[in-house]
Amino acid sequence: MKKLFIFKLMIIAMSVTTLISCNDDDGDCYCAEQQDAARGTITNASPNSGSLDFFSDENKINSSALNYTDTFGYYNFYTGKRTFSVKNNAGDILAQTDIDLKNGDYFSVFAVNTFSNIELISYNDFVTYPKSNNAVVRFINLSSDSEAIDIKSAAKDFAAGLSFKEDTEFAEVSSGFYDFTFYKTGTGEVLFSQKDFELRPGRIYTIYTKGFVTPPSGSNDTFSTKTIVNF
């Protein structure tokens, strides 16, 4: 099958759609200029974190700070061992992680967990292009207090016991409209239902959970989902 490395990123939040493609160096934006490069996205999935800046080594990646659920990219990155970090407006390092990047890699970096326990985690975005009239989807559990979850549709069980920060494999499915239901593992409690979501032919999706099963005092950020259309 033809292999596909993802070149465009489209963020969907319910009915709002924004198209984001590979970023060039626009003054305050990281861009590796050499031919050998890896390409990655950055996402703020940390509730109550405020706006965040992402760095690769000492280089600031984003030109504008990322608010909660914002995703920017894909950016070009130098290959080799890179230290990714996230900082607040005061420039304090809040979390960091090392990633060994190879030429041609496509990946996503997320800031996750509550602000007091914020951390960075990365995922590989390499997938196989779907067959005609099919789509590809993966799920990531980024709801910090959800424990384990099951994800099902009428046609397919997508995940069983998916823990916080755990992702599924990319699954190729028939295109069309799906009702995704998110359950608390072992209890059958419905945490969230994503109704009439269209998986379009030839598209590749990442759906991640966010918010809280039990929101802290003063928060209305309940358990829900955010969708990234990777291609």
Count of domains: 2
Global morphology: globular
**At CATH's second level, what is the architecture of the largest domain?**
Sandwich
**Relative helix content:** under 10%
Give an overview of the whole structure.
- The chain has 231 residues and is an all-beta fold.
- It folds into two domains: 20-124, Immunoglobulin-like (Sandwich); 130-229, Immunoglobulin-like, CATH 2.60.40.
- Helix content is 0%, strand content 53%.
- It contains no helices and 20 strands.
- The strands form five sheets. The protein has a six-stranded mixed β-sheet with strand order 3-2-20-19-13-16, with no helix packed on it.
- It starts with a strand and ends with a strand.
SSE inventory with pairings:
Layout: E1 3-4, E2 8-13, E3 16-21, E4 37-44, E5 53-56, E6 59-60, E7 71-78, E8 80-87, E9 93-101, E10 106-112, E11 119-124, E12 127-128, E13 134-141, E14 149-152, E15 157-162, E16 171-174, E17 176-184, E18 190-199, E19 204-210, E20 224-229
Parallel strand pairs: 4-10, 13-19
Antiparallel strand pairs: 1-12, 2-3, 2-20, 4-7, 5-6, 5-8, 8-9, 10-11, 13-16, 14-15, 14-17, 17-18, 19-20
Question: Which tags fit this structure?
Answer:
4-stranded mixed beta sheet, DUF4397 domain-containing protein, Immunoglobulin-like, disordered N terminus, signal, single chain, mainly beta, 6-stranded mixed beta sheet, DUF4397, 231 residues
Give a nutshell description of this structure.
The protein is built from no helices and 20 strands. It is globular.
